[in-house]
Amino acid sequence: MLISREMVLDMDIGLNAALFGGDMMARMDKVAGIAASLLSRNRRFLTLKVSELVFHSPVRAGEIIEFYVGISRQGRTSLTLQIEVQVYEPVSDRRRDVTSGEFVMVAVDESLHPILIQWKPEMVQVAAQAHADRHPG
């Protein structure tokens, strides 16, 4: 499930002429929060865990990055999202892998205590199918 597209700007670029890794992780974390909210009727989620991120390709200023999200695990109060990031080249219509990782998100109340997730079944189905399509077998 494609969640977001963003253009990387000059101000996002570090000394090595590429997007900072920490900036990419922060963007992925925001996407995880948005995706969790789209998959449920819950308002608040906290990030519990982020798996190892491996960077396959640098991202340069002016490139468009795409965030693909699939749901890999549904729990009572948490969900695990697989997020994959690619650079999209609109002129050639090609994509290249940038990074991926798993984000565990926990639904919380106003006091930041875990609560049951109120799933949106139709959205969960879309996300689960997206994960299965990108990771067959």
TrEMBL record:
Pfam families: 4HBT
SUPFAM superfamilies reported in the protein's UniProt record: Thioesterase/thiol ester dehydrase-isomerase
Keyword Hydrolase: yes
Keyword vocabulary terms for this entry: Hydrolase
Domain HotDog ACOT-type, first and last residues per copy: 1-111
Similarity comment: Belongs to the acyl coenzyme A hydrolase family.
Protein name: Acyl-CoA thioesterase
Organism whose genome encodes this protein: Geothrix limicola
Lineage: Bacteria, Pseudomonadati, Acidobacteriota, Holophagae, Holophagales
